[in-house]
Write a structure and sequence with these properties.
Length: about 800
């Protein structure tokens, strides 16, 4: 580098560029790159920008590399030296880039001639340090950039950020102006249509406004995997029927309705038989409920009367369903609101048979179902061979649709905001069930990426499963139990298929959500008995009801709370309703008479709660003994450690229980004050936060000192990047989603225990999420395991 005046000239030149932008962003960035290359005495200066929608870093400007590669060269965040700059969020200087393990060669750039690499991050200029991209200088000769030169490139990166901010602001203003004009145009068109509507007496319906298209729609992963196909919109019942359609032949319409009614009843019976192996008895009762609606003389009679009054069968059906569901939804009663959904579902079924849509041919090409919600009647579509995925605007990961999608292993994304207004029939979709994203009419590059990713994922999954279900151990023989988290009967089949050695967490409340009333002891004993029969001699840990927050059964009358996750939920409800609590305790004790069953209390925050729960358990045991009913009088008792107070009370709690199970899902959100269901703070909900890792280590150390078993059963156990850290901290049991058992098992088998312990020791010394993630990625890369992480993250 020449004298300081050259550097000053560079800064002055960058400042002048910052004040006099071209109308074209690429032209401006090319001028910036040329100025930096001159000032740094480098043969190459390039700017790579981060594309958050594609989650890739793309070459956007260069001097020195082949200009034809601009816009074509891209890489993931974990690829190349450019990606390393963003991962570390600090300058990276490499005298001989080609010899670096992170070097990624792109032949179209012609960069093989250049040796020294210096890259600095470009951050958003609004104070949040949001990464925008990477500014890179390269030289032909091997050279070590000094601190002054690195500071200078950082200064240049700040100027680049200002330029990008200027263009982004200008683009935003232009977009807002376009949106304002478009809104005005739509309002004018809507007013015109309204006048046309009024001119014809209000008897016709004008077309709905044009859809707002969004190319990338984030949601929640309900069933993993990747899917591509044409969008098929289902569930258009309310929007597709003319409520005023009349008929000249009521007898013919009545005959059509009676035929549709008979076919609907037959279909329900067939569907119940088909779903019986996949669903618990409690869930199957919903089919019986729908049959009762179809056989209800009052409901059917109202439709017949409306047909007799001169309406077409479809209009009569619509009018009766609309009237009933509207009145039910108007009542502040969860049970009645649930019944409104059942009536609409029955309406869907009848309408489909009235229109004889059941005769429609199966899908002829790969198809992704798109719906507001997917009802049981619409699940018949799951029989189509060409069904590749499901995308739902509403619904959660525990809905019927999500549960059955996992049972069928259909990639599914739920909770997709703006889905119905962004997708039209026939749109080409790419669905990422691993990360919970739906792409609408994506570009060729995204489609190619996902075709490749899907093939690799399926081949990889087969390979992992074929490795066998032998006990999981490290290379030097350290044993780790691989258990499954399950919610319903159907999950057990999947858990066994993927090699679970037992169940570390049965979320018992999910079966309760489908009952019309709190299930009695006999019903619960039968439910647990079916599960235990399928598991054979494998162990199971049953968590008592964790209802509340976002999981209230329809039959429970609960007050509305401003912050339900910190309110009346879980063990707090059980202890305030001891009669119902003891029904479940008695059922678990009876089911445990001949099986390996443990019981676990959720959300324990004090010794008082634990002792009261144990008192009720002892009372239940005494009652069963007195009644002469077979049960397990010595059942092991544990708690979920999922609130901060339990972490710090762990030494005292350990004296009262047989085992701990660390529930990271709630523990993370309570430690970090970040609601895991709130998109606004989703970036703060971080399993690899130092505070979370320290809390886990504290609980493990306490359990080990007290000679008590400790398991980790949150979603963190399903993250292969966290596997070696958790094993190294001393966790000998991991309970995770069945689909992730093969990859976590593979990670454990590829290392020795001492390596995992070293990783844990070093990680526990780190002070930031970024440092921890960067370290773990590097260690996995050194161990040749990074492909396992990339495939499942």
């Amino acid at each position: 580098m020449s004298a300081n005046k050259d550097r000053l000239a560079l800064i002055e030149l960058l400042s002048s560029i910052g004040g006099e932008h071209s109308e074209d962003l690429r032209e401006t960035l090319d001028r910036v790159a040329a100025a930096i290359a001159t000032g740094m005495e480098a043969e190459v200066c390039s700017l790579y920008l981060f594309d958050p929608q594609r989650e890739r870093i793309v070459l956007r400007a260069t001097v020195g590399l082949d200009r034809e590669s601009v816009g074509k060269v891209s890489m993931r965040l974990n690829e190349g030296l450019v990606g390393l700059v963003l991962e570390k969020d600090e300058p990276v200087c490499v005298p001989d880039a080609i010899s670096h393990p992170r070097y990624k060669y792109f032949p179209e750039t012609g960069e093989e001639r250049f040796h020294t690499f210096l890259g600095v991050p470009v951050h958003d200029h609004d104070g949040r340090k949001k990464p925008l991209g990477v500014l890179v200088a390269q030289t032909l000769e091997r050279r070590k950039f000094n601190k002054s030169e690195i500071r200078l490139l950082n200064t240049a990166a700040n100027q680049v950020a200002q330029i990008l901010s200027h263009f982004r602001l200008r683009e935003s203003l232009a977009t807002k102006e376009k949106e304002r004009l478009e809104y005005r145009r739509r309002m004018i068109e809507a007013n015109r249509q309204l006048k046309d509507y009024e001119k014809v007496g209000g008897k016709t319906r004008h077309a709905p406004p044009a859809k707002i298209r969004r190319p990338r729609l984030p949601g929640l992963s309900a069933s993993p995997g990747f899917a591509q196909g044409s969008a098929h919109i289902v569930g258009a019942f309310l929007s597709s029927v003319d409520r005023n359609q009349k008929s000249r032949d009521p007898k013919a319409e009545l005959k059509r309705f009676e035929d549709a009614l008979a076919r609907s009843l037959a279909e329900l019976a067939t569907l119940r038989v088909r779903m019986e192996p996949l669903m618990p008895e409690a869930d199957l009762k919903i089919f019986d409920g729908h049959r009762m609606i179809l056989e209800d003389e009052e409901f059917v009679g109202r439709i017949r009367d409306t047909i007799a009054n001169g309406y077409a069968a479809e209009s009569a059906l619509f009018r009766v369903i609309e009237e009933l569901s509207t009145s039910m939804l108007a009542v502040a009663d969860n049970y009645l609101r649930e019944r409104a959904t059942d009536f609409r579902d029955v309406g869907h079924r009848l309408l489909r048979h009235l229109r004889q849509e059941e005769k429609r041919a199966p899908f002829t090409k790969p198809t992704i179902i798109v719906a507001e919600e997917l009802t049981l009647s619409q699940l018949m579509l799951a029989s189509h061979d060409k069904l590749t995925g499901i995308a739902l605007q509403s619904g959660g990961v525990t809905s019927h649709a999500a549960i059955l999608a996992r049972a069928f292993e259909i990639p599914t994304v739920v909770g997709v905001e703006h889905l119905m207004e962004s997708v039209v029939e026939g749109d080409q979709l790419v669905l990422d069930g691993n990360s919970g994203v739906v792409y609408v009419n994506p570009g060729a590059e995204i489609e190619r990426d996902y075709v490749s990713l899907s093939k690799r994922y399926e081949a990889f999954k087969r390979e992992l499963i074929e490795e066998g279900n032998a006990p999981t151990a490290t290379r030097d023989g350290h044993r780790v139990m691989m258990l499954a988290n399950i919610a319903l009967l159907a999950d057990i089949q999947m858990a066994l298929r993927y090699g679970a050695e037992g169940v570390g967490l049965l979320r018992s409340e999910f079966s309760f959500l489908t009952y019309e009333d709190f299930p009695d002891e006999t019903q619960q004993v039968a439910l647990y008995g079916k599960m235990l029969e399928m598991l054979g001699k494998r162990p199971i840990t049953i968590r008592t009801l964790d209802i509340g927050a976002d999981k209230y059964p329809a039959y429970m009358r609960v007050p509305r709370e401003d912050n339900p996750f910190l309110g009346w939920r879980s063990i707090r409800i059980s202890l305030e309703m001891p009669g119902l609590f003891k029904v479940q305790l008695r059922a678990i004790l009876r089911a445990a008479a001949k099986h390996d069953v443990r019981i676990m209390f959720p959300m324990i925050s004090s010794l008082e709660e634990l002792r009261r729960a144990k008192e009720l358990l002892a009372e239940s045991q005494a009652e069963l003994f007195k009644e002469g009913l077979e049960h397990n009088p010595n059942i092991e008792v544990g708690i979920m450690v999922e609130v901060p107070s339990a972490v710090w009370l762990a030494p005292r709690l350990a004296r009262e229980v047989d085992f701990f199970s660390i529930g990271t899902n709630d523990l993370i959100q309570y430690l970090l004050a970040a609601d895991r269901n709130n998109r606004k703070v989703a970036h703060l909900y971080e399993a690899l936060h130092p505070a979370v890792i320290s809390a886990i280590a504290e609980v493990v150390n306490v359990a080990r000192a007290a000679d008590k078993e400790v398991c980790l059963c949150g979603e963190m156990a399903s993250d292969p990047l966290a596997t070696l850290l958790l094993v190294g901290m001393g966790l000998d049991e991991l309970s995770l989603s069945p689909l992730f058992i093969p990859v976590v098992r593979k990670v454990i088998r590829e290392v020795d225990y001492q390596t995992a312990r070293l990783i844990a020791r070093e990680t526990l010394q780190m002070a930031s999420v970024q440092e921890i993630k960067g370290y773990l990625v590097e260690r996995y890369r050194d161990l040749g395991l990074i492909n396992l992480v990339e495939m499942y993250r």
